[in-house]
Amino acid sequence: MIVTGFAVIVAPAGVAAQDGPALIREGIGAYNDFDPQRALPLLRRGVDPKAGPRDSLWAFGVQYLAQILYEQGDEAGARAWIRWAVRLTPGLKLDTLNLLSQVIAEFQSARAATAAGADDARVGTEWLWPSADPGSGPGRIEVRPEGAPAGVTVTVPGHGTVSPRLSLPAGSYEIEARAPGYRPVRFTREVLPGVTTLLAIALQPEVRVAAAGPRPAPGPPPPPVAAKKKGHFPWAVVVLGGLGAGAAAALLGGKGGSGSGGGTSTGGITINIPNP
Length: 276
What we know:
Elements: E1 2-4, E2 7-9, H1 13-17, H2 20-32, H3 36-46, H4 56-71, H5 75-88, H6 101-113, E3 123-128, E4 139-143, E5 153-156, E6 160-161, E7 165-168, E8 171-178, E9 182-183, E10 185-191, E11 196-201, E12 204-205, E13 235-241, H7 245-251, E14 268-274
Parallel strand pairs: 4-11
Antiparallel strand pairs: 1-2, 3-11, 4-7, 5-6, 5-8, 8-10, 9-12, 13-14
Helix pairs in contact: 2-3, 2-4, 3-4, 4-5, 5-6
C-alpha cells in the first residue's frame, strides 16, 4: 500500500510478485562474484513460487541456494529446500556441471523421498512467503480451517500438535491428521525457514460395516444307527424227482438204502440250497 497525500493507492498484488526472476539473476550474479552472503537473501526471495514462473531459471535459483547452504555447512537446510523444490517440480533439471556432487546426490534422492503417498491427494499445500527475506530461522505449519472436519487434530509426531500453528526448524516432517468418524491421513511435507506451510486437509468419512448377527447354535447330533445282526440264510427247498434211492443218498452225502426185492425207487429227494 502506497500513501500519497490524502489518496490511498493499493498496488496490484502481482506487481511485486514478478520480481522473482530478477532476484534470482541478481543472486546468481552475487554468487559468481564470490559474495554468497549477499546471494542468499536474494535467492530465498526469488524462488517464491508466487514471485514468478517455475521455469529453468527458477530451478537454477533453487540449486544455487542449496549449493551455498551446503558450502556453509547447513546440510539440513539445503535438503529441505531441495525436497521442497522436487515436490513442486518432479521433473526439475539439474546443472550437473556446476553443482557439488553432494548437492546432485541430494536432488536425486529427493525424487524417491517426495514420491506421492496414498494420502497425498487428500491434502492441499501452499507455502506462504513473508514480505521480506524469510531468513534462516524456523518455519511453521498451519492448517486452513475451511474444509477441515470439526474436531480435526493435526500432529507432527515427536514435535507437537498444530493448534493452530507449530514452529519447526527447516526439514521434512511426517504429519498426521485425525477427526472422529473420519479415516486418518498421514503425509510428509517440508518446512522452509521463515515460510508458512499451509495445509488444506480433506478427510474421508469412515465406512462402517454392519456387524453380522450371531450364528445359530448347532442342533443335536443324529441318533446312532444300530448295526444289523447277521442271521442264518434261509434255505430254498428243491424236490428232485425220479432219482433212485442210492443216487439220492449219494447226492446228499448219506448212505444208500437197500430196498427189498431190488425194485426201482421212484421217490423224491429234498435238497436245501442256501439263498444268498
